[in-house]
Amino acid sequence: MEKIDPAWITENFISLIGREWMLVTAGDASRFNTMTASWGGVGYLWNKPVVFVFVRPERYTFEFIERCDCFTLSFLCEEYREAYKVCGSRSGRDTDKVKEAGLVPFVTPLGNVTFEQSRLTLECRKLYTGITAEERFIDKSIYRKWYGGSQGGDHRLYVAEIVDSWIK
To answer: What is the model's pLDDT at position 150?
Structure first.
């Protein structure tokens, strides 16, 4: 992987996150978990390049992201679509979904985990967190659609600085 300044990434993150998906991974080489996500974004905030992601408390990855200062976002090539499906439909509590998905962990110099199959990796340090709450929604229909049923609990939002980025 080649280290790159995040300002030079030319990817369309709306398409990348919303259509192609990403893996959110937290922990270290000895113990980590990853999950597929399709909600989030990339931008510039507080004079820093940042990402924002949403994780529900029910997800096993939530425990890791809460405990750790950093996490990675890994973007795979289309040929790994099945890996996204595995990591989004199975829990790391019950199975070694990384092995099942055919992914090979790669530990960054900062000690965070991404995957050899990642064509783009963003290594991120948490700056802010908050919880989506019904009373904070201006458009109440969004809350009813995404949180009013059996989809799960309210998401925790994480805003994190991109401290390192790599391309393949």
So the answer is: 64
